[in-house]
Amino acid sequence: MAIDWNNFTPWLSLAGGVLLGIASALFILLNGRILGISRILGGLITPQTGDIAWRVTFLLGIFAAPLVFGMLAPAEIITAPRIDASYGMIILAGLLVGLGTRYASGCTSGHGVCGLSRLSLRSLVATLSFMAAGFVTVYFIRHLL
Amino acid sequence: MQRLSEFLIGLLFGLGLLLSGMTDPGKVLGFLDLFGLWDPSLAFVMGGAIAVGIFPFALAKKRTTNFFGSALHLPKNDSIDKRLIIGSLVFGAGWGIAGYCPGPALVSMAAGQEKGLTFVIAMLIGMACFEIAERLFHKPKITA
Fold this sequence. Notes:
By secondary structure, chain A is mostly helical. Chain A has six helices and one strand, in the order βαααααα. The mean pLDDT of chain B is 94.
């Protein structure tokens, strides 16, 4: 294993993680909901009366983030995303992520951040599973294919 | 007030994703590439989030209402079953292929990334497939 020092951003990533933790903590305490993106989104596919508005306002906040980030963040920390996957691979990945997160009832936010914060064994198993699958998939694509 | 709070928390969460580097698929894949040139940054995202989340969630467990006085919805399901593990493995495989998980994909779409939009559409189709499969194979039990 070699460390990629050129791309390593411990402080920005830690600061970003702290914001994610604060948002998740505020959401459960103020709004009484688990901040889990796949569940918030998935609930809109089969909408239930009275259970729609909170999901939509939350998502609008997420959608506003790139604009606000562009205004607030100093230019040197704004980097262009590196998207290597082809459109075919992007579509395959999207299908797998949509299906998998709904079967598992959560993704990186619901299981990874909220679940681990509330010390849920179920979420720990989910997080270890999706991380292991991520490691194996990247190993396969980058080093075997 | 509740609507405003949801919007601002969504915004804060999106800013956290952007600041942390989670919205850059190259960075995510750099973290998942344990056996290549490894970028450990994402471990700091998780560490930071859980470090500040752990006490508020402990407080939430002791409450039955949120600060606005309505119900506090904590997950009741603690079963570790095939659905959880297989679903997570399928999710992780998709995460490893493109470097997007659901939140960052939504942010990338909103930032005008065409591949972000493509991913979100495919993800919604995947979610719809789940709903259809649930209706076909898990018919609700009829209780007398």
